[in-house]
Amino acid sequence: LLAIEYYHQFNNMSYVNQSIEKCDRCQEVFLKPDFNTTRTTLHCFESCFSTEARLGYTLTFLLLPILFYLTEFLTLTDRYEVTTLRRKVRRSLQEIGRNCWNPLKFIGGIFKFLTWFSITIFVIIFWQPITALFKFYRDGIYETSNGNKRVDARIRKRQSDLTASRGELIEVNCESAFEPIIQGYIIFPNIIDIAEKISNMVSIKEDGKVEISLAFTTVETAQLISIGTSMVSLAWCYSEYHSVRKNMLLDITVSPCSRVTMFLYMLMQIIARLLAFQLFALYWGPGQLYPLIVFVVIHMFLSCILHVFFSEDLFYFRKGRYLKFFHNTLMNAFATIYFHNYLRMDEMPRIGKTLDVDVREEIDAQTP
Fold first, then answer.
1. How far apart are CA 34 and CA 210, in angstroms?
2. Lesser CB count within 10 Å: N end or C end of the chain?
């Protein structure tokens, strides 16, 4: 909704020209002592944040998860790739290679490959909801199974839990981590106006009737919903991930007090860090959001370095699995924007010995 609204603003030349004129006036008085002494000057930050920047930032972090969905799909081991599409695409390519001299089978193999490839593209774009569907399906199989079938279903359930949790983390790390920063920068200087509108939402008439009216514009409503849902989803998904790591013992239905406490703790930290980000961004003047983005990128880079030294992911680099290494490292860098997180991945490298020679080998192990 916000991306569509910002696109309309971008194509509305009268709105763009009015914003430019107001921003020019704001820039003239920005360095004067009386700046920020009136409520009008507070709206300068919104006016100087161009429509191109709003649309560009919003679309960038809206589409960025797709790139990480792709790397997640490519780097997961077969036992955690719950859709099995990667194996099917690989087998269809092998079938094409084997049937090069048989025209009918060759053409059939190409059609088969294109079919699986098209389905794979769709699945990658909607990776998070699709992995969640697999999780719900395997949860149901586990709950309705008995005996040895229940044991096998428990293993598959664990794998789908981790895959779905990872999909949620990619979504919130890339999109929900940055959307509150962008929308908050636009709406934060107007917090006084918003507070007044909220206070005037409920009024009591002379005849004793209570009138409730929503005074927000469509854009303001969408911005507030975007900020609120992003903060809640960040806290909830991180707490869900920690619950999955502990075999769902911190699930809301198993340990509600512990889960709610962890959720509120994470939510308060996110709100505090977000307010600090907004104050830091406002220091640089109207329309200057890029210093905050640069600061966050530097923070992520330093977090990447620390993660390499204090995690097992360096093993993937030594084994030549560079895509896996960079994917895991970047995911942890995104996850530490608001508070410290250590996202252990689906399979963790361990040091083992073979019967013949002492070697470092990667053992596919569930996250503890």
1. 41
2. C
| Torsions phi, psi for 358 (to 5 deg) | -80, 115
What letter represents residue 355's amino acid? Answer: L
Report which DSSP code applies to 172: I
How many other C-beta atoms are found inside a 10 Å radius of the C-beta of residue 273?
15
**Spatial contact of 179 and 61, defined as CB atoms under 8 Å apart:** yes
- Which is more confidently placed, 171 or 361? 171
131-139 long-range contacts, Cβ below 8 Å, gap at least 24?
A: 131/82, 131/83, 131/160, 131/163, 131/164, 131/166, 131/167, 132/164, 132/167, 132/168, 134/82, 134/83, 134/160, 134/163, 134/164, 135/160, 135/161, 135/163, 135/164, 138/82
pLDDT tens readout for residues 232-285: 888 888 888 878 777 777 777 778 888 888 889 889 988 898 889 988 888 887
Q: How far apart are CA 29 and CA 36, in angstroms?
A: 10
| pTM of this structure | 0.78
How many Å apart are CA 111 and CA 96, to the nearest integer? 10
Name the residue type at position 333.
Answer: A
pLDDT single digits (tens) 89-138: 888 888 888 887 888 888 888 888 899 999 999 999 999 899 989 888 88
